[in-house]
Write a structure and sequence with these properties.
The complex is a heterodimer. Chain A is 37% helix and 16% strand. Chain A is built from ten helices and ten strands. In chain A, strands 1-2-3-5-4 form a five-stranded antiparallel β-sheet, with helices on one face. By secondary structure, chain B is mainly alpha-helical. Chain B has one domain. The chains are: A alpha+beta, B mainly alpha. Chains A and B meet through helix 1 of A and helix 6, helix 7, helix 8, helix 10 and helix 11 of B.
């Protein structure tokens, strides 16, 4: 019997996990990321001669809910064609039974790693607005992300911002052309149970999916069917908070974060656009909707906004007074 | 005499799902022995190496202890007390080995009284080669915290060795000797510099043929390792946990 060295055991362990790409147009290059129940590999598309990201369930032979979820994620991405959302290229099942999909290979950094290099708060807020634009687009297409957090946002090498990982997405409207979870390999798979009215995946009683700290209270309570755009707005509020975590306190910005991630969803912004507009107002030095200012704050903000003109006018007036006093006829 | 057969595939054991744990607890002596043989196949090397390194026993001494331990396990029905809900099988077995060694004298007397000491046909020379081959670092098991880790590592090595053997048998049976050679060259003996292109050139085949052969071999290897794993797990939950421990993902 052959003896196996530690190195051979490690190689076997790794290779046993590798997706079986035989008979497909892809060639495996390297593992890029691992999370939840799936792994992302860099692969070479032999036909189109380009590098793609191949997302596949980590367990060979995976069936049922997990396979259903990945297939659904691909379909959700396919209906979200937006520069801020990673485009999907292909979906299917590998010879080892695993569901996979390929998408654009994004070269860059996750937001939580990238953010340290962005010093001015204004740059961070503009980046946040681009994340919001992508989420607002998804909402307009009837899709909730449900797992928005810095680790699920990629910033490309040319500064492009891409919202990733739509595995927990919920489809709000029922205008999906194909049944969202239907697997082409088994179109009548009874494992693909779903609610016909909402298109959301039935994931078992009491199963809460999301990321603590970023998940809205209603999502954490498992109120899956009643979730709406305000659940994602809560996550965006938390994401905004994380972007300004080490910054000095700023009442207006704090108020925007607080309003976006209010415990009561009725107290949050009703739409992502409202949140973006408030952030824009903050960037322009205007009063934000999230907070009523007192007269001193209004004056202070007015001064900060028009400081140059105020100082110029003041200097002019001082000069005039001096001239009047010194050059008396 | 208890003789492990070390046959591949399902030849060595009835194809019931949780056969080993159930088999060891069976009232039928023959079935109990068969179950113990299957268990022994996977665990004797980790037990032997553990005794050699952790308990610093000489080769001959460790061989007797390993033989004695599995005989004791059958005689005293030690696995009847195993509860899959409370611990992992290998943790339980390791603790049994420790207990066996702590009560070694009593066990020796018991085996003498019992008369017939059952001997397993185990390849101790091979295990010694593995120890001498430098692939096991004795220093790595110095701390009590790493005992489980060491035992687990050796158990995975043992499981993979058996699954590779199963794969070899299958390849020979199906006339796919070259596939096994490719698998050996890339997955067992390869390093970071190995490439499919190199192999294709070496064997005079296309890169696609290498890709397909390796994909098939890995699929079969995985299937065989999982099948062996499944046989020695006491429940679905344990099987999931063990798959995660071996491969890093949970089997479905």
């Amino acid at each position: 019997m052959r003896q196996l060295s530690d190195k051979a055991v490690t190689r076997l362990r790794n290779s046993a996990e590798l997706p079986d790409l035989s008979g497909t147009r892809y060639r495996l290059l390297e593992r890029v990321a691992r999370g939840g129940m799936s792994v992302v590999y860099a692969a070479q598309d032999r036909d189109l001669q380009r590098r793609v990201a191949l997302k596949v369930l980590e367990a060979p032979g995976s069936q049922g809910e997990l396979a259903d979820r990945l297939m659904r994620e691909a379909r959700v991405l396919a209906r979200l064609e937006h520069p801020g959302i990673v485009p999907v290229h292909d979906v299917g099942r590998l010879p080892d039974g695993r569901v996979f999909y390929t998408m654009k290979f994004v070269e860059g950094q996750r937001l939580d790693q990238y953010i340290g290099s962005l010093t001015p708060i204004s740059d961070r807020l503009r980046l946040f607005q681009r994340i919001c634009d992508a989420v607002a687009f998804a909402h307009a297409r009837g899709v909730l992300h449900r797992d928005l957090k810095p680790a699920n946002v990629m910033v490309g090498s040319f500064g492009e911002v891409l919202v990733m990982d739509w595995g927990l997405a919920k489809i709000l409207t029922g205008d999906v052309e194909t049944q969202p979870g239907a697997d082409p390999a088994s179109p009548h798979d009874p494992a693909n149970r779903r609610n016909k009215t909402t298109g959301s995946v039935v994931t078992g009683h009491g199963r809460v999916m999301g990321t603590p700290g970023y998940m809205s209270p209603e999502q954490a309570r498992g109120e899956v069917e009643s979730l709406d755009a305000r659940s994602d707005i809560f996550s965006l509020g938390q994401l905004l908070r994380s972007l300004r975590s080490e910054r000095p306190s700023d009442r207006s910005l704090d108020a925007i974060c607080a309003k976006a991630s209010a415990q009561e969803r009725a107290a949050r912004y009703a739409t992502v656009q409202e949140l973006v507009a408030d952030v824009s107002r903050y960037l322009d030095g205007l009063a934000v909707e999230a907070r009523r200012e007192n007269i001193f704050e209004k004056v202070g903000r007015f001064y900060r906004r028009y400081r140059f003109f105020i100082l110029l006018t003041a200097a002019y007036l001082v000069m005039r007074i001096l001239l009047l006093v010194l050059i008396k006829p | 005499m208890l003789q492990p057969t070390f046959r591949g595939g399902d030849a060595g054991f009835p194809a019931t799902r949780w056969s080993v744990i159930e088999g060891v607890r069976s009232g039928d002596t023959a079935e109990r022995r068969r179950a113990l043989e299957t268990l022994c196949q996977e665990y004797w090397k980790p037990v032997y190496k553990y005794v050699r390194l952790r308990w610093s026993r000489g080769a001959e001494d460790a061989q007797d202890i390993t033989q004695g331990f599995f005989a004791e396990m059958l005689e005293r029905e030690l696995l009847n007390r195993f509860d899959a809900g409370k611990s992992r099988l290998r943790t339980y077995l390791r603790l049994c080995v420790d207990s066996f060694l702590l009560n070694e004298d009593k066990a020796a007397r018991r085996q003498k009284r019992g008369g017939e000491v059952q001997h397993l046909a185990l390849d101790f020379a091979g295990a010694e080669d593995e120890l001498a081959g430098g692939c096991i670092d004795a220093a790595a098991i110095a701390s009590p915290d790493s005992l489980d880790e060491f035992f687990e590592k050796e158990w995975v090595r043992s499981l993979f060795t058996l699954a590779v053997e199963d794969l070899r048998t299958l390849c020979i049976a199906q006339g796919r000797e070259r596939t096994f050679q490719l698998f050996e060259a890339y997955d067992l003996d390869g390093d970071d510099n190995s490439s499919y292109e190199q192999l294709a050139q070496q064997y005079g085949i296309t890169v696609t043929a290498v890709t397909n052969a390796l994909a098939w071999a890995r699929r079969e290897f995985r299937k065989m390792a999982l099948e062996r794993l499944r046989r020695t797990c006491g429940s679905d939950e344990e099987f999931q946990r063990e798959t995660k421990a071996v491969f890093g993902w949970q089997a479905q």
